Amino acid sequence: MDDEYMNYEEEDENYSLDDDEQEDENYSLDDDEQEDENYNEAEVDVQQVTSTKSTSQVITKKSLVAAQKECLVRVMELLSVKENQARTLLIYYQWNVDKLFSVYIDQGKDHMFSCAGLTVFDPSLVTSKKIMNCDICMEEDLPSKVMTRMECGHSFCNDCWKEHFTVRINEGESKRIRCMAHKCNAICDEDVVRKLVSPELAEKYDRFLFESYVEDNNMVKWCPSIPHCGSAIRKIEDDDDVEVECSCGLQFCFTCLSESHSPCSCLMWKLWKKKCEDESETVNWITVNTKLCPKCCKPISKQDGCNLMTCKCGQHFCWLCGEATGASHTVQSIAGHSCGRYKDDKVRQMERAKRDLDRYTHYHYRYKAHTDSLKLEDKLRKSILEKAVSNAETKDQQVFKEYSWVIDAVNRLFRSRRILSYSYPFAFYMFGEELFKDEMSDEEREMKKNLFEDQHQQLEGNVEKLSKILEEPFDEYDHEKVVDMKRHLNNLSNAVDNLCKKMYECIENELLGPIQFGIHNIAPYRSKGIEQATEFCAEICQT
């Protein structure tokens, strides 16, 4: 995309709230009446809680007990099993109650128990012997009171069991401690483990079992906030690609637990972060702007016009071809040396490094420009909120009784600015050769690139206009001008919303659709932004 699209100051220099024609061209909207109607529906108090069902729930440390207990009760009631058996089943099936019930119906209880490592108590295995042997420590003639038998029928001395449990708990394998017998996959009874280990270790054991609801549950993940807020987020629906907001305010990708990065896929964002953090582009710069000394192999940069280079190690070499030479030279040539032969591989390597560096610089500069704007506009949001609240108390209540019109516009600016930020890493990988070299021909890549940049350009231009209008001192305007500004913000906000939708449709259907293969899925566009997770309700347990 041309650099001209990053600078809108010149374009907006003569902006006026009365210049309808210029704005209408940029809005790209077909029906102003429809926009006003949509705006009225969206114009609600900023504190109002939406009545629609949230797609995620916050589970605090306190409600985690209720969430886990509810699932346990469902399994215990259906299968008529004890709590420790229900927990073993749920851990094996990753706390997916529906999947557990499906296996039970399709393949039966015995098959389900066998897979999970559960055994049904068999009274015939109970021995009446008073003296027993331990096959682990090989102690003989042990009294039965120092021996413990698991439901699988295997008996060993308490000291061996205690050592076994201690090692497994300390190694982080508390959730599925198996019997010590050779080739026995039975899971040890929780009550027996607690009885034989120390109180401190029993507490650690219970904590691992307690946290299993989050650690082993595909629908629940800890909030990645630092410091940790102590909450977890649970998805209501089994949607692989979703961005969520915790009650602590952190927005993140549920799949990879990094910051929200749509329209980047998780893989794209992971590669981009690594590229920005490591020295890959520094290496490219060195390749383009330096030559290696043929003797000591240290990089040398050129400071003047002479092509005879002299390294600190004393070696002379030619800047043009990199070959070692003598010291004698003239302006036109180096004595005893000719580098007129074309070295195709070396030239292509340098050209490729320069092209890669230019591409990265182009996209990274624009990515950083939007992320910097996002940080600066946080101050703008706070300032506007203060102005809106102040004017709601002092000015015409007919106009200012609801100030959500300007708050909505600021929120729209934030959402669209964030999308623009992550659209540059997306474009870097989408139209480069690192991920999709074999999936697109050069012609197809160029065609898709032009399609994306056309839509991206319109969105970027309108976002910059929205940002500039929000900097207007509306708290100093009279009633008529405030009404006019409200109409303009309404139109421009709707335009930005529509352009975001169109760009996402382009990405999902035209760009990634034919080639994603489930790897490069992205979180869908949400007009109202990332939903904040609601508080967990103990009456619902849909895992």
UniProtKB/TrEMBL annotation:
State one Pfam family annotation.
Rcat_RNF216
**What GO molecular-function term can you cite, just one?**
zinc ion binding
Q: In which pathway does it act?
A: Protein modification; protein ubiquitination
Which cofactor does this sequence's record say it needs?
Zn(2+)
User: Is the Transferase keyword given for this protein?
Assistant: yes
Which biological processes are named by the entry's GO terms?
protein ubiquitination
State the superkingdom: Eukaryota
Domain RING-type, which positions?
130-343, 134-183
Catalytic activity of the protein: [E2 ubiquitin-conjugating enzyme]-S-ubiquitinyl-L-cysteine + [acceptor protein]-L-lysine = [E2 ubiquitin-conjugating enzyme]-L-cysteine + [acceptor protein]-N(6)-ubiquitinyl-L-lysine
List UniProt keywords, sorted A-Z. Answer: Metal-binding, Repeat, Transferase, Ubl conjugation pathway, Zinc, Zinc-finger
Disordered: annotated span: 1-40
> E.C. number, please?
2.3.2.31
Q: Which PROSITE patterns match?
A: TRIAD, ZF_RING_2
UniProt similarity note? Belongs to the RBR family. Ariadne subfamily.
Q: What does this protein do?
A: Might act as an E3 ubiquitin-protein ligase, or as part of E3 complex, which accepts ubiquitin from specific E2 ubiquitin-conjugating enzymes and then transfers it to substrates.
The cross-references to PANTHER family, in alphabetical order and at most eight, read: RBR FAMILY RING FINGER AND IBR DOMAIN-CONTAINING
This protein is called: RBR-type E3 ubiquitin transferase
- The species this protein was found in: Arabidopsis thaliana x Arabidopsis arenosa
